[in-house]
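Notebook entry, structure prediction.
Reason for the run: the old model in the group folder had no record of what sequence produced it. Starting over properly, with the input documented here first.
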Amino acid sequence: MTRLCKTLTCLVVMLAASGCANVSSVTSQVSSYTSWPDGRKPGHYTFERLPSQQSQPAVQDKLEAAAQPALAAGGFEWVADAAKADVTVQVGAQAHVDARRRYYDPFWGPWGPGFGGWWGGGRGGVSMSMSMEPAYVQMQVDVLIRDKRSNQVLYETHALHDRLGAVDDRLFPYLFEAALKDFPQQAVSPRAVTVTIPPDNR
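New structure, fully documented this time:
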């Protein structure tokens, strides 16, 4: 019975994994807030890092690389020299994983213990097995754009994506794309934004 439970659990995991591999789009809940001046062009930018982000440069490098295509699509141009930047961009990401467990008996279903034995006496017992459902995952990216001279916040945006399975950092570029989809206009927040994943990246 234990072997059967393990087999069923493996099948659930395999099906969940195959479903994630065929994802063609990513839908996020986006919240954006703007004080971007009318008529101002995006201009040049440089990244700004908090002290906590500076302590993990490799992680932040990957995150900033994931945000760059969305910033370029919004009209921004990255410069290495901070003195030549019009704005600074601060990006962040977070993920929350909630592992969900359920009790399951292969003969009685997921409702609780199953009682079995020979009719008319003999051996009997209680069978209960526990299997793992695909984890519930929340992935979020954050973007903060400041004026380089005044340090005033000009644009703030967040994109939150819910999924089953595991954290997949390959989705971060599409979350940044959703977060900056309406830049620099004010939009309803939160709102659902769907981004299509190119076939080559699925």
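Summary: The longest strand covers residues 135-147.
The old model has been moved to the deprecated folder.
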